[in-house]
Amino acid sequence: MLGFNSGGYSSRSWGWTVVAFTALFALGLLLREDVVIGSLEWVTLGALASLAIWMLISSLWGIAGTDGPHEAERTLVYLSGLAALLVLVETEAVWALLAGVLAGTVLLAAYGLGDRALNGPGHDPFEGSLLVAPLGYANALGILVAIGLVIAAGIVVCRGGRRTVGLALAAAALLGVALVLTSSRGAVLALVCGLLVLGALLAMRSSRRNRARLVLPAAAVVCIGLALAAAPRSGFGDRTPYWRAALHDAHAHPLSGSGAGSFHAYWSSHRTIDVSVQDAHSLYLETLAELGPVGLLLVLLVLVPPFVAGVIARSDPAVPVAAGGYAAFLVHAGIDWDWEMPATTVAGLACAAAMLVAARPSDRVRPV
To answer: Which terminus of the chain, N or C, has fewer Cβ atoms within 10 Å?
Structure first.
């Protein structure tokens, strides 16, 4: 639903999305007899809630253009969505959750391809003839497709069964066509990183090395670093000036940042190229610039615990698949404005939820 509503980019979609997620969360509490939330899940949810609060209060010191309530409202979409997933999904249903993410990406890509077949390539003043429907942004559709491709690859390798493998291969073929038509180099890079994480974890499980606990976080860090290092050399448009501006902004406001949502105002006053832009095209650099070290720490406290859960639950065959999809999302979030497009972030958080739920042995959880 978020994808078909321009990816949820407009704030008009946030209210009903929060209501829908909250209703699902409440139904889970009412209808499930034993609802348990693990410590890593509490950390992630607590960090998300704290991030929303930090965004809100940043309006007190932010520069002109700061819009803390707007940014906090979007973060509530992610908080309510992740909370609903953690309450509704049981450990036995992790594969079903991943299959649902794959089905969602296929549905959105199929709509985009169908629209292109019926109406021909579009002529958007910004996107040209790239495949953008229904999200309206080729790179956003590209990362959703990349996450779906990682999951499809994992299902082919890990699940078995002719019908399951056949459906996954068909989904991968459709998603592959969509990815090519988006021409999203960032999504291709994210896909490669996601597949590397998936392959490394599958190899790790088969060899049973004693250092297994180090592979997942190390692979994620290396992939993110490679993505950020390679981006300026790979023709990623005007991102380098945006990133430099974000770093200059962080240097100018080193403690508390310039305020949530203020990058557009800072860029307008300090831009080095004649381009109007709303975001720094990097979740990590933009957070550092707008919310300071505290904001970046909160973002890391949201994003890192799922990988820790993946280490704990590394013997679960679904974990490498979820970790690959999640790694693809994290890499792409470092080179584009995925956080501002809820459809992409919710897909990434669904992969995170799969790892968090998989790490729920009975001796590690406590009742809500």
So the answer is: N
> Residue 67 above 70 pLDDT?
yes
For 36, the enclosing helix (H) or strand (E) is strand 36-38
The per-residue pLDDT for 224 is 55
Type and span of the H or E element at 53? helix 39-57
On whether the CB atoms of residues 290 and 262 are closer than 8 A, the answer is yes
pLDDT digits (tens, 9 = 90+) for 227-251: 555 544 555 678 999 999 999 999 9
Q: What pLDDT does residue 210 have? A: 45
List phi, psi (to 5°) of 145.
-65, -40
If we measure between CA atoms, which residue out of 270, 301, 267, 269 comes closest to residue 282? 267
Q: Give pTM, 2 decimals.
A: 0.91
Cα–Cα separations (whole angstroms), residue 91 to 32, 156, 257, 260: 13, 21, 39, 36
Sorted by sequence, the CB contacts under 8 Å of residue 23 that are 6+ apart come out as none
CA-only gyration radius of the chain, Å: 20
Q: Are 72 and 56 in contact (CB under 8 A)?
A: yes
Q: Which of 67, 75, 77, 62 is nearest to 289 (CA)?
A: 62
User: DSSP H helical segments within the chain, as ranges?
Assistant: 14-31, 39-57, 68-88, 94-119, 138-158, 162-182, 185-207, 212-230, 239-252, 263-270, 283-303, 305-312, 319-333, 342-358
Residues belonging to the chain: 368
Q: What is the pLDDT of residue 368?
A: 44
Token pair, residue 167, equals 């459906």
For 163, the token pair is 């019908």
- In whole angstroms, what is the distance from residue 136 CA to residue 336 CA? 15
- Check if the beta carbon of residue 226 is closer than 8 Å to that of residue 186: no
Task: Please give the structure tokens belonging to residue 43.
Answer: 């950390």
First-to-final CA distance of the chain: 29
Tokens (6 digits) for 133: 């429907």
The answer to whether 2 touches 135, Cβ cutoff 8 Å, is no
Strands annotated E in 218-296: none
Most confident of 73-82, 123-132, 196-205: 73-82
Specify the higher pLDDT residue, 213 or 77. 77
Report the distance separating Cα 224 and Cα 231, nearest Å.
11
